[in-house]
C-alpha cells in the first residue's frame, strides 16, 4: 500500500507518526534551513547535557563546534579535517582513568562509570561492532549473536584456567605458578584463538542457515541462542565429562600481562590493573573499529551491503534472492506466451510493467528485461523504426540535483526532491 | 521451437534430483525416535499412555498459542514476539479475576466454579484480544510500510514491555493459583489418573478450534482474512477494509492467547512473569513445525511438540530429562527450518530458499 496523501491520512498519524515522515520533512528543507535547524537541535542537545553534567556538555559542544571550524581549515591541511574528531575522542578516552575520579555526578544517570565498568563498556562496544557487520551491513537479523560471545569466553576459559586439572600446560601465562594444574596459555594468543574458534563456530552455524532469510534466519539464530546456554548450563556432566562446570562457571581465569607484570595486580600506582585492562580494551576497540570500517569499504563489505539492500528489496516482493527456479519458470512462461501470441509492443511493455512489480528496485525485472530484449526480435514500429538502445546510465555525480527519472519513478515525480537516487535504469 | 524443446529437456534433466542426503537423514532421525518410543511402550505401557495423554493436553495449550502466531504470520508475515507475553498477561488476568474478584478457590461449589470459570474465560479473551489490537494499532501499524526488520524488532521490544508489566503485577517469584477444579480423577489409566485440570483443557480447546475453523472458512470476515493474507492490495481493491481485517485477526489471536492463559493457569497451577517468553517460543516452534500460516498445521505441530516434551520428561528408558527439553525443542525448530522450511503441512515459501 502506498502512502496516502496527507488529507487522507487518519488524524492520529499526526501524533503516532508514520516512520519516515520526519525524514521527508527534513529533505524538504533547503541547505540554509537545514543548517539553521541543525544549529537549533545542537544547542538544545548541549542545553540538556549541561543539565545532566557539564563535562559531557563540554565534550559534545566541542565536537559540534568542530563542524563549524572544519571548513575554515585551509585545503593544505585537509588531513586535519579528517583527523580532528577522532583525535579529540581518542585523547578524551585514553586519559579517562586520570580524571574520572574528579567528574561530578550526573543528573538522572548517577556517577560516571569507573574504569572497571568502562572495560565492560569497551567489550560491549566490540560486540556491537560485530553485530553491526551481521545486522547492519549484511541485513541478517541474528538474534543469537551473543552466543558467539559465550563461545569466545569459554574458549578463553578452557585454555587459561584450572578447569582441566589433569592436564598440565603452561605456555607464556603470566602470574601463574608453574605447579598450578590446568592449561594455561598466554592470553595474547588466546585473543586470536578465541576469535578463530568463534569464527569457525559462526561458519558451522552459518552454513546450514544460509538458505534462510529474514524472519526464518532470526528464528534459527534465536534457537541457537537458546540451546547454547542450556548446553553450557548442563555441561558439567556431558557423558560424565565436566566441560563447562555447569551453572557455577569457570573461575578464576588467568589475567593477561607482560613479563612478570599481570593485569590483575598492576605494575605500580600509575599502571594499575584496571587502567591496564582499560587501555588494552581501548586498543582492541580501536582495532575492531578500524577493521570494521576498512571491511565496509572493501569489496567484501560492498557485497554485504548489496546483499542487505537486495534482501530488503526482495522481502517486499516475497521472491527469493536465489530462487532462480521461479525466475526461470516465469521467463519461460513469458517466452511461450510471446511466441504463441501475435505479440505487439504493447504486450511486451505490459509484461515489463508487470514484472518489475510496483516500483521496487529489483534485479529480476532488470535481468528479465535484458533477457527479453536479446531474445525478442526487434518489433516493427507503427511510426517507423526506433532504435532499441539501452537508456544511458544516470550521471552518478549529478543524480542528487537532477534525478534521472526511470519509468518506475514517474509516480514519485511530484516529490522528485525526495526521490532516492535511482538504483538502476529500467530496461 | 527446437531450441525451446532442447532447453526444456535440459531443464527437466537438471530438475531431476536423486534421493538426497536430507530426506535419508530425516527419516533416520524419525525412525530412531519411533524405535525409542516403541521400546518405552513395551517397557512401561501404563506410563506411556498417561504421559501421552498429558502431552496431548499440553500440546493443546501450545496449540492455542501457536494458532495466534500462525494467524498473525499468515496475514502480516510478522513474527509477533509479543504474543507469548499477551498469553502471560492472560494468565495474570484470569488469576486476578477468578481468585481475587470472584473469590474462587478449592472450596467453591460446582455451580460457582462452572459459571465463574466461564465468566473468567470471557474476561480473559476480551482483555487479551483488546490488548493485542492495541499493540497492533500502536506498534505495528505505523510500521506497515517500513523495512521488514523494523516491525520484528518492535515486536521484541513490545514483548519486553509486556514482560515488565507482568513483572510489576506478578512479582519475580512464581505465583501459585488456587486449585479451583476438583482434585478427583476423570478416569484412570493403569494407576495414573487423568485429572480434571487436564481434562478441562481438552473440553475447552476442541469447541474453540471448531469455532475458529468455522470462522475462518465459513464467515464473511474469515473470507476477508484469507483474502488479505493472500494479497493485501488486491483485497483492498475488492473493497475489503484491510486495516479492520488485520485488527480483527489480532483480536482473534489475542482471544486465543487469553483462553490459553486461563487454561495454562488451571493446568499448571503456577504462573510466572516470564512464562510467556518460554512458552511463546515453544508455541512458535510448533507453528513452524506444522507450517507457519497453516492453522491445522499449527495445532498438529503443537500436539507433536507437547508430546515430545512430555515423553522426554516422563519416560524412564533413556530419556534426556527435563533439563534438555529446551534444547530438544529448539533443535527440532532448527532442523525443520533448515531441512523443511515449509513445515509438515505448509506450502513452500520463498523465505526458506
What's the pLDDT, averaged over the residues of chain A? 73
Sequence of strands across the biggest β-sheet of chain A: 1-2
User: Can you count the helices of chain A?
Assistant: 15
Q: In which range does the helix fraction of chain B lie?
A: over 70%
Head-to-tail CA distance between termini of chain A: 25 Å
Widest sheet of chain B: strand order?
1-4
Structural class call of chain A reads: mainly alpha
- Fraction in beta strands of chain B: under 5%
Counting copies of identical and different chains, the oligomeric state is: heterodimer
Low-confidence stretches of chain A: 312-324, 340-364, 379-427
Let me know the number of strands of chain B: 4
- Largest interface chains and counts: A-B, 46 and 44 residues
Task: Please explain how this structure is put together.
The complex is a heterodimer of chains A (427) and B (353). With 427 residues, chain A is mostly helical. In chain A, 55% of the residues lie in helices and 3% in strands. Chain A has helices at residues 13-16, 21-28, 31-52, 54-69, 78-94, 96-99, 115-137, 146-159, 187-209, 214-233, 273-297, 299-317, 324-340, 345-354, 363-375, and strands at 168-171, 182-185, 257-258, 261-262. Chain A has a two-stranded parallel sheet. In chain A, helix 3 packs antiparallel against helix 4. Chain A starts with 12 loop residues before the first helix and ends in a 52-residue tail after the last helix. Mean pLDDT of chain A is 73; it is low at 312-324, 340-364 and 379-427. Chain B is mainly alpha-helical and 353 residues long. Helices cover 73% and strands 4% of the residues of chain B. Chain B contains 13 helices and four strands. Chain B has helices at 2-15, 21-43, 45-76, 83-101, 110-140, 149-170, 196-218, 220-230, 232-237, 242-268, 275-290, 295-314, 325-339, and strands at 175-176, 185-189, 192-195, 270-271. Chain B has a two-stranded antiparallel ribbon. A two-stranded antiparallel ribbon of chain B has the order 2-3. In chain B, strand 2 (185-189) and strand 3 (192-195) form a beta hairpin. Chain B is globular. Residues 9-18 and 349-353 of chain B have low confidence and may be disordered. At the A-B interface, helix 10, helix 12 and helix 13 of A face helix 1, helix 6, helix 9, helix 11 and helix 13 of B.
